[in-house]
Amino acid sequence: MSRPVFYEYWRSSAAYRVRIALKLKGVDYESRQIDLREGAQNDPEYRAVNPFGLVPMLEIDGHQLTQSLAILNYLDIRYPNRPLIPAMAAERAHVVAMSLSIACDIHPLNNLRVLQYLKRELGHSQDEVDDWYRHWISTGLPGLEIQAKALSGAFLFGDNPTAADVCLVPQLYNARRFDVPLDDYPTLLRAEENANKLEAFQAAHPDKQEQAQ
Asked: Would you say 28 and 82 are in contact if contact means Cβ atoms under 8 Å apart?
């Protein structure tokens, strides 16, 4: 069986999520960088395998998988060790909802292509773009804090990392890059602190990637 190939960009939040999951699951893979800032996502060769021109994409078991949460779901079924999504219906819905709150409500508004459009096509200044970025994180995190609090433990749900934590850690990494205040979110910060004690989260951090050196 061929080694999985992971198309990613080292600072991409969505790729960061999948990188964490791959490392939690102990999956050996080959990383291929798609430099979003250089426009490599628009290269015809990459578009031929991923017509959306986004990262991440995972080639595994003869499949070309896109969308970070779809990849997480595949990995959770394919590699059932260290499950990221609970089996019970209500618990599953809770974890998926928290994951989607980040991956669908907060992150897409601050995706690189959105920020570039605001600046290049719409003519906003860098300060205005940064304010936009901070606004949408600060709008989304209060609800996530409340959502997580009821069933949280060491992590956003219970005492083991789930897909919600896999989504949370990259989002808080980005929040700090843009100086978003986080003191009002003790539940989120506790989950992040405990996640970052784990080797898989540490190894997946953008600063630990070769391209960051």
From this structure: no
- Domain extents for the chain? 5-82, 89-201
Could you tell me if 129 and 118 are in contact, meaning their C-beta atoms sit under 8 angstroms apart?
yes
For domain 89-201, the CATH class is mainly alpha
Cα–Cα distance for residue pair 101/90, rounded to 1 Å: 16
Residues 86-115 have pLDDT tens digits of 999 999 999 999 999 999 999 999 999 999
Choosing among 3.40.50.1240, 3.90.870.10, 3.40.30.10, 3.90.105.10, the CATH entry for 5-82 is 3.40.30.10
The pTM for the full model equals 0.96
Element (DSSP H or E) covering residue 81: none
For residue 58, give the H/E element and its range. strand 57-60
d(CA 136, CA 14): 17
Token pair for residue 115?
């920020």
State the DSSP H helix or E strand holding residue 8, giving kind and residue range, or none if neither: strand 5-8
Q: pLDDT tens-digit profile of 126-184?
A: 999 999 999 999 999 999 999 999 999 999 999 999 999 999 999 999 999 999 999 99
Q: At 142, list the tokens.
A: 């209060």
Closest listed residue to residue 180, CA positions, set 140, 137, 146, 148? 137
